[in-house]
């Protein structure tokens, strides 16, 4: 029974790894070209704190950089990028008069 459990865990681990890679690839290709890909981000572009389970990556719709939630609380339209309704922007972009 223990051997069967180990085999099942190994198979599930391989399957999970196979699923994670394509999902990340799909995620990056479905995003606007000006966004920095997730795999290139390690820390928030504003506060420079590292990303992790408690600090997930968000993308500023203005500049496309990876930012944390605390540094991207503002919402404004970004007509220059095609966002007519208010969308997430980082604190740096929020200080700019035009987006």
UniProtKB/TrEMBL annotation:
GO terms for molecular function: 1-phosphatidylinositol binding; phosphatidylinositol-3,4,5-trisphosphate binding; phosphatidylinositol-3,4-bisphosphate binding; phosphatidylinositol-3-phosphate binding; zinc ion binding. GO terms for biological process: lipid droplet formation. InterPro entries: ZFYV1, Znf_FYVE, Znf_FYVE-rel, Znf_FYVE_PHD, Znf_RING/FYVE/PHD. Keywords: Metal-binding, Zinc, Zinc-finger. Residues 38-98 form the FYVE-type domain. It holds the Pfam family FYVE. GO terms for cellular component: lipid droplet. The keyword Transit peptide does not apply. It comes from the Eukaryota. The keyword Acyltransferase does not apply. This is Putative membrane trafficking and cell signaling protein hrs.
